[in-house]
Amino acid sequence: MAPTNLLLTSLLFLLHLTLLPKAFTIGINYGTIGNNLPPPKRVAQLLQSTLINKVKIYDTNPEILEAFSNTGIDLIVGVENTQVANISSTPSAAADWFTARVAPFIPATSVVAIAVGNEYLTAADSDKLDHNALVRAMQNLHAALVQRGLDRKIKVTTPHSMAVLASSFPPSASTFADMLLPTMTAIVGFLADTGGPFMVNAYPYFAYRDNPKTISLEYALLGNATGVPDPKGYTYNNMLDAQIDAIRSAIASLGFQNRSIKIVVSESGWPSKGDAGETAATPENAKTYNARLIQRAQSNKGTPMKPKESIEIFLFSLFNENKKPGGVSERNFGIFNSDGSKAYDVDLSCQFCSSDSQKTSGVGMNRGPTVWCVAKPHSDEKVMQGVVDFCCGPGGVDCRDIDENGDCYAPDKIHAHASYAMNAYYQMHGRNYWNCDFKGTGIVTFSDPSYGKCRYSGQ
Ligand SMILES: *[C@@H]1O[C@H](CO)[C@@H](O)[C@H](O)[C@H]1NC(C)=O
Ligand SMILES: *[C@@H]1O[C@H](CO)[C@@H](O)[C@H](O)[C@H]1NC(C)=O
Ligand SMILES: *[C@@H]1O[C@H](CO)[C@@H](O)[C@H](O)[C@H]1NC(C)=O
């Protein structure tokens, strides 16, 4: 690309950024226990026209991994509960799993996390499952990612149900169930050390269904109910906040109050249909709950205990799944019908990506087409050397590729090495334009700087 073009694209890039809203995440769970669901390619297209920018699946269905390549949508893949024991057996079993199931699809598909098991510790047959195996499986997978230099991009975690708590009320006094304490301590320690999020599936719906006389519907529906006081002085206007803070307290009670551990709501939703007794399972309530959930995710709102810490949320679920076992409501959590029409009217439009911007041809903060950061031609060599020293040192970039024998060592020129280091730093820090400044020596480009065996990462 000619320098004038480069300048133009980077100006356009900056212009785009100033027009974009604050980055937020709205994820959705994409379950596939149905015999009438659209093919993954169509699902990926469907989601690209919405504001959803993360998708969580429960396995590593290769068709889905392939379908989400180059969509700008991040993917969280899952290890099935039945596979946990195998992956826990040896580090090489975990490496083999990753090599076979995930590696073939990256980086075209942006895999950002691996959810090891789903509600593994509280599954119906969990007494038959080895709890330590879950921890070992997580450790083994993390080690496999470290070996490939992917541990910063791909986080290892495990989604829990609220049943891991001994009690959830009052939120400030909540703890994990006694019999899970050793396992939870190991898991939370692992997450604190590796930067993975603590995932919880939180369903005010079920709490309301089971206690409709004591819980107000507005409180369960994420409304602004009459405040429920907590003895520590917090006031809860909706149950989801109380559930999240209950998890927060339980984590703190293990002795992790000073470590930063992000809590992610890996599932939450409301069914539009249920069995005869499930009177709150209506399209109106499902619409109300999910619309509020989406609004909440966009608002970057925290909870009473941590008002400034926004919560990442994954809606449950994308489709009604007609082959799911259990009660009627289990098969009716979907926002979409299998033909791609909405099960009820909830606004998923993305004002900044519905036209031709952001997702299709423009640039998003964390999505859109891939962009790279390189050193400007003719930049000052001393400054560039300083940039390399910074990126490869405190900046945390893995610079082995520009060491002697590395794939990007040749040409042994400071401009090339600085480009490599700048790009790695930029990709790692969320592709914000200020992470490609480097005292004016960095510039954003739309053309892949990779050459020969030297690969520049891009998302
Ligand atoms: C784990 O799974 C792999 C692939 O399915 C298989 O080859 C291997 O024998 C299994 N290992 C154990 C310990 O079950
Ligand atoms: C919720 O209700 C309280 C008391 O009625 C009010 O002060 C507060 O502003 C309301 N919050 C929202 C988000 O509507
Ligand atoms: C957490 O930090 C506070 C304030 O710095 C300190 O007083 C307390 O001892 C720390 N607690 C733990 C468990 O490290």
TrEMBL record:
One GO BP annotation of this record: carbohydrate metabolic process
GO molecular function: glucan endo-1,3-beta-D-glucosidase activity
Alphabetical list of Pfam families matching this protein: Glyco_hydro_17 (PF00332), X8 (PF07983)
Localization annotation: Secreted
Boundaries of every X8 domain copy: 371-456
Signal peptide bounds: 1-25
Keyword annotations of the record: Disulfide bond, Glycosidase, Hydrolase, Secreted, Signal
EC number(s) per entry: 3.2.1.39
GO cellular component: extracellular region
Reactions performed catalytically: Hydrolysis of (1->3)-beta-D-glucosidic linkages in (1->3)-beta-D-glucans
Family statement: Belongs to the glycosyl hydrolase 17 family.
Official protein name in the record: glucan endo-1,3-beta-D-glucosidase
Organism: Handroanthus impetiginosus
